[in-house]
Amino acid sequence: MKATATSTSAPPLAPGGAPLLGHVVPLLRHPLAFMDSLRRHGPVVRIMLGRIPVFVVTDAGLTHEMLTARAASFGKGGRLIEALSRFAGNGLATLADGDLHRTQRRLVQPMFSRAFIAGRGDTMIEVARSVVDGWAADEPRELHDDMQELTLSVFLAALLGTEPPEATRRRIQRVLPDVMAGTIRATILPPWLGSVPTPAQRRQRTSFTELRDAIRDLIDEHRRPARDTGLLDLLLDARDPDTGQPMSRRQLEDEVITFVTTNGQASTATVLWALHEIGRDPAVRDRIVAELDQVAPGRPLVGSDLGSLTYTRQVVHEAMRLYGPAWLLTRTVTAPAQLGGFDLPRGATVVFSPYILHRDPVVYPAPATFDPDRWSPERARSIPRTAFQPFGGGARQCVGEPFAWSEMVIILAETTRRWRMVPDPAVIPRPVPRVTIHPDRLVMTPSGTGR
Ligand code: HEM
Hints:
The protein has 19 helices and 12 strands.
């Protein structure tokens, strides 16, 4: 997988750039096709955002190397991180590498451990089921809002350790689209163009304040639940092992905002794509339902069943492969560095993209085909580990990964068991790359039972 050049040199320039704007136009117009096309030009390719060179790593081995063994030269940073920190402040995902990140990661890690998440499985399932049960039969639904409601409800249930207050959930859900809306534009546009004040930017700034107010109230109003402690209780109890100090109030807010926004993006997108693919292929749905009937015959699903839902997990796996869901992540070169034999100057932004890696036809034959059996225990063995990196790698790998798997499997299982989701043939969802890749619209009708 790892590619090397014979001598050190500047990475090749991608074709199709314009004099003043560079590759901004193809990146804004056809971002996914443009990114996918870069693989043809080499393992590291130079593109221009205006006059600023940006280096895109298209090779899986080199991406992994950059995130792990060479991480000291490739710091977390770059334009995406600047754009995200406008609302997430110093949350775990936007903190620069260093002591504060290491301390925060140590404090936060236990709340996303497999054991802790497994202990919240029953509550997460109950909340997902009550949302799905509330849908009316035979009425078409715009599933984007539904899935955002589901992922947010399930996350808040785990965060609080109990069913979240409906008003709080609504308040957060209302502002999330505006919070995320301008992030990719702020990443791609040259700074002089991105700083022009527009009504959309003003709306976005208001939404940042509203989200922070909602999270502040959520923390203030939280009471430790009787049954299970939530993730938030762990955060409140966390003490820096060196100083014995709790997290500052501002840091706590930044962390919760980070979790709510990351969860709402990536997990929502993956579940939407999975439902779209299940709707196109009834055989996939039948196999999920058969598995659920075998694992939990004649009874509701419980948390301890999740580990046995092998096929349902394969469906989630394949949805994450095919649609990313992150297509543009960034690092900053902290000292003059080489990657794959190419010279990269200090201060440059490096882009890496699970989307590009997951569509490599050498590793994934017929890469555009949705095939959950790629991930059957026998076939998955032939896929190199670095070829599937939806959660990144190294010290900055997604801390929420165990939570994300449980959440997505729960939502898919509960939706599919309760309903047969019938796609609207007039609405063909198109991928829209925001921070993650969302379908522009997904309209499906819950019909009868999934059985
Ligand atoms: C399908 C679901 C998800 C995907 C594909 C995903 C993907 C990623 C990726 C690729 C990174 C690394 C970014 C980088 O290296 O620059 C990341 C980091 C992170 N993710 Fe996720 N994520 C998902 C779900 C979640 C959830 C559910 C949470 C929390 C509730 C979460 C919280 C975080 C945090 C806090 C970080 C920063 C970790 C650090 O820098 O130490 N993610 N995620």
